Amino acid sequence: MALFKKRQVGKPGEWYYCLVHKKVEEGPECPAKDRFGPYTTREEAAHAMETAQERNLEWQNDPKWNDRTREEEGDGTGTAAP
């Protein structure tokens, strides 16, 4: 076990969004598991949650990733074979 915890040193100009503190940080202040980034600007990091939500919606609606049809999901819009 290490005696001293090695602190991650960030580079100036790298921006992150901390998911725990819900704030923008320059350089990694919090552990990697708790942040999105790096982003090139503070503004991009500030919109990290919106960007993630948009990407999630794109993924959910991408036919290449959705191999189940509506009939298989049983949403009542089609006729599925038993």
Written overview of the protein:
- With 82 residues, this protein is an alpha+beta fold.
- 27% of the residues lie in helices and 16% in strands.
- It has helices spanning 42-46, 48-60, 70-73; strands at 15-18, 23-26, 35-39.
- The mean pLDDT is 80.
How far apart the termini lie comes to 58 Å
Strand order, main sheet: write it out.
Answer: 2-1-3
Query: Helix tally?
Result: 3
Q: Runs with pLDDT <50, length 5+?
A: none
Total number of β-strand segments?
Answer: 3
The arrangement of helices and strands along the chain is EEEHHH
Judged by helices, strands and strand pairing, the structural class is alpha+beta
Average pLDDT over all residues: 80
